[in-house]
Amino acid sequence: MAGVKRSLAAMMADERLLSPSIDPSDSTARSQSARTSAASSEYATRAPSPALPSFDGNMPKFTPDASIVFIGVRGAGKTTLAIMAASALKKRIIDVETAFQRATSFSSASYSKVHGPTQCQRKQGEVLQDVLQSNDSGCIIVCSWMERRVQGLLRQFATTNPVVHIMRSKAAVQEHLKVESGIKWATFWSTSNAFFRTCSNLEFFNVSESAATEQIQPSIRKSNMADLPPYLALKQAERHLLKFLSQIYPAGTIPFFESAYPLASVATDERQFTYAVELSVEDINQDGVDIEGCSAGADAVQITVGNIQNEWTNSTYREEYTKMANDITEAVGLVRRSSVLPIIVHIDHPQSASTTTTCFYLDLLSHVLSLAPEMMTVDLRLDDVAISKLSTLKRSSKLIGNYSPVENFNSWTSPKWMSLYQRAVQLDCDLVRFIRPATTMSDNFEVSQFRSAVASLPDTHVPIIAYNSGLLGRHSACLNPVLTLVSAKPHSPYDPKRDASILTAQTATNALYSSFLFDSMKLYVFGVNVSYSMSPAMHNSALEACGVPHRYEPYSTNSLSQVTHLIHDANFAGASIGLPFKVECITLADALSPHAQAIGAINTMVPIRQLNDDGTIPTGSAFFRGVNRAGPVRAIYGENTDWIGIRACIRRGLSPANAVRPASCGLVIGAGGMARAAVYALLQVGVRNIAIYNRTVENGKRLAAHFTQLLQKKEFAGLGAGTNTKFEVFTQLHDTWQSEFRLPSIIISCIPTHPIGDAPSPEFKLPEPWLGNQTGGVIVELGYKTLNTPLLQQAMEHAEQGWIAMDGLDLLPDQGFAQFELFTGRRAPRRTMRKAIFENYPDQYGRSNPEELRRRLQTMVE
Ligand SMILES: O=C1C[C@@](O)(C(=O)O)C[C@@H](O)[C@@H]1O
């Protein structure tokens, strides 16, 4: 049956496998191994899930409107997640238990008491069949029933639709259901999870708050978590779920969810010098490592499952499989919840694996695919049939064909490497990875020649990851362009068994500069008075964490003419633009990004040193290939990242109760460059009703007219509600909300929070009735020189009503992450940057107050 997650072992009972000692590039040996795979009945009987009809094709590609089913034990969080998914995917929720009650006027439990369990199960089957048949699109269907007929129906549904097993930690479910530990509970737990696994094609780990908190910031684990606003736990769960859903549905299915950060538009494997930080399942699950913290400078997280054994003395195959599958599910959940980086899952397939171990390995791989990681490795020593089967199951996950022998390996000059690469390509691997220890220095040059030979193959664009491990191999590891494995911290003492990741992202990046491949560059923040700017602290800490030797400095000036020599310097790498130059600075730019054009203001300048042949600015991976290299500046490119920061604040601060709907209203205060970015951010989260308050009516009207015209252009028609978006301009703060729009749930203040020149600080507050929205909302104050502004105090006074206050220190890092990516081509180390701000921000007495500000780190959802 297509689409159902099931034992690969069972599925491939007659077709396997390899003899573990074969040379993987040797096709004679492969076919021999297929022939000698006699003991297949062993796999079938040891398979963890019940036998299912044979697999007959690809995993289905789900259409955007395909209904999704959430199954799992009671207390796993299905209903809460269904509400979030329904709001994001614009689908309707159907709870099968409610449908049962509607059909019979009884709950399942009462029906069972009256008519007996057999009759009740029959009825459940009928109800479910009816629900599935008549709602295969546009719905989120929730089901906790466990019954044979239910199982069959769900399996059938999984051939065309996503059926997600929602998992949660045993302790969290137990606490939720208030059940006592004991054999009965343990048995229920394992049988129910095994049951749901047999009829789902996907699995999602609903991270419990305590675990999530540990991931957020281990160093403040003991701090007062009671301060965490309740909506926040939901926000984090929502973000996590949406990341998962965006992996399984086609791109664009979740409106306004696509990342706007520059590197998100370029596939990781198309970029140069990228790193995957390696974390073990145990580190993640048991030790609660700070995932965000230790992935600074990395481009992906590799979750390594290292201890699959050849035999189990104290447990059965099934028990061992369940335990490891649960651990992997949890680790993927924790990483996805706390990091924006793509996930690679790698399971070590032992060099001398028994057939049972290989079978176990394959079962785990098919399980991994149900978690929808961005990438998964598969051992190229497996035979063609096994790898092809995995290719048919992979859906959006990329398959990395992996071969990393630790002994008896060929020299890089052997043609076997090339034939193994070509075999992996034929088997539909999306990337190929070869890692082997270096025995001499010349291995480093030979592997580089091998990479060049692959690059010069005609018509083959499958990226190759190839380098040597060990101390001697570091040279080739640093120069390997795609996803070199790095360690979270330096290994000490050197352990030859774990030598694949001797480097950290920081040391590997640093080596690119010390070997003159890249140049050390200069960065600035420009403004009339930027002495208070937190950007230097934020960017310099990020540069250091990533091993990039650039310097970022404040540059205060009254006139932009004074910066021209800086932006045409051979070592100029970019600048942030502060007040009041965001609009004027456009005159210095030769080209603007589409966002900057739409907004009509920039806060970022980047030098371009290599133009396209037609004189245009390179885009995508070509844009990033030009960074970090000194030389004459051919053009200045202007971008606006303020809107990205504002959008991130709206998303973080807006509780699920205030999710954007057609009638939602956003209020922007001010009409300058930042207000333009704010309106654009509102459009980018789907707000259709935008109110602008500005004292000077002409400026307010000009702002509204700018966006009204913009939305008439074809390329911006998808923003907000396009030409149906409405604007209103206010010049008076009336005591009542005099508008055809509903009361606002998003308020963005874009006026200065401190005195500028002779102009005093506006001490701005809103009339109380304007904050009358019943479920509150989010108020964002963009300035950060003064934090405790009258407006934010007002928001805090209305906290009970659901108002969330966000200030410029919430905004600054998010707009800075995007800048950092543009300046360096590296992923921004988000937590490092946030921390740097909190550690350097002076309070009203000019002292830094990290304790007070650090608590904010708790509330971050990346
Ligand atoms: O508005 C701001 C603040 C800023 O100017 C600063 O460092 O203060 C940096 C800019 O990138 C950003 O757009």
UniProtKB/TrEMBL annotation:
GO terms for biological process: chorismate biosynthetic process. SUPFAM superfamilies: Aldolase, Aminoacid dehydrogenase-like, N-terminal domain, NAD(P)-binding Rossmann-fold domains, P-loop containing nucleoside triphosphate hydrolases. Pfam families: DHquinase_I, SDH_C, Shikimate_DH, Shikimate_dh_N, SKI. Residues 25-41 have a biased composition (Low complexity). One of its GO terms (molecular function) is shikimate 3-dehydrogenase (NADP+) activity. Residues 808-837 form the SDH C-terminal domain. Residues 525-604 form the Shikimate dehydrogenase substrate binding N-terminal domain. It comes from the Eukaryota. Residues 667-712 form the Quinate/shikimate 5-dehydrogenase/glutamyl-tRNA reductase domain. Residues 15-57 are annotated as: Disordered. In the N-terminal section; belongs to the shikimate kinase family. In the 2nd section; belongs to the type-I 3-dehydroquinase family. This is Quinate pathway repressor protein QutR.
